[in-house]
Design a protein that fits this description.
By secondary structure, the chain is mostly beta strands. The chain has three helices and 28 strands. The relative contact order is 0.14.
Amino acid sequence: MQHWQVRQLTRGTGNCVYHAHSYYDIPVFDPSSRFVATHRMGFADRPIEAEDTVEIGVVEVATGHWQSIGRSSAWSWQQGPMAQWLGGSATQLCWNDRDDDDRFVTRLWDMADGRRRTLARSSYAVDPHGGFTLGINMARLDTLRPGYGYAGGRGARLDAPAPDDDGVWCQSIATGESRLVLSIARARAHLMEQLDGADGFDALRNYFDRASDPIFWFNHVKIAPSGQRFTVKLRFRTRDGGWSDEQGISLTCNLDGTALAVLATAPSHVIWYDDQRLFLWQRDAFYFFHDGVDGGARGQAIAPDVVTQNAHIRYLPGRPDVFVADTPYREEIRLFVHDESSGRTRDLATFAHHRPARSPFRCDLHPCPSPDGRHIAVTSLQDGGRQLYVLSCAEPASS
């Protein structure tokens, strides 16, 4: 296994200047692995209010140099403004913002010439080939799952338990035109069909037998490598109740809305592995799931003796048998790599001072590998405030 070195990439904690990358499952590195999309904030440890903004920038991995490129009033503690690089482009970056009419939109910026554009809907996931984005109702998400949606927006539609005119939206990057691919109402109806007799839904049948008028929402949209299919989490709870991983399912669907299927019940931290398989945490381990039109089929567990609790886990580009994972939701977080082919595990670093360990404004590492497999970006409270760190190795991951 390679030797990895840790460097603090951003600073400013002593002056209440904090930095983070958006999330672990989006392309925060540019295609050349030279820059990381980052946001800068001036406070910590409290809920985000509508007037709170962050500064959007890119940080050079080699030098730590920060370049400011914009601002956003649409962000969350766990996923930031979803600042990410566009697939199919070496220089274009997008992030979410709120416009003057309190609508969540997508800002586009080109590093090559500084050109800017705005798309009328916010973006959660970007097509790997750069043709479109997928988005959901972030105002609804903020209300029903604090810490992930955005404050200050309109149109949460809380009067509707499962609206038929809102859900997953597909938005053309070239034209800005959008269409509804999968409504929350259709997703709920599909789930209810499974409850009529499909195997593996006993816990959900019991839940809905007891639940009084549950409300539904979408979270965690992710696009398959081919760009032809996506997964989204459908969650639900009673209006005055809490939630757990049991109160959710992962769905898969084609981009034209066909072939809707339930991938898994009680899912967490779902990632596409290839166009046929995804992996996710389900109750006691991370498992591979095969995506099929009749539903997901669970396969082998990933390092069940090593990854013993829910975590953020990615595989290294060029080495799909090597996984990088953290140990979140604790004050001292380990980052390690595990090689499935050899069975070897190696600790990379330990990051301390992650207080609070659990809350809507906790700081997770969210490890994100670079496209060349030579860097891993994390956000940590190691120096007392949110800052970006990078772990680097001398050789490409494929060596």
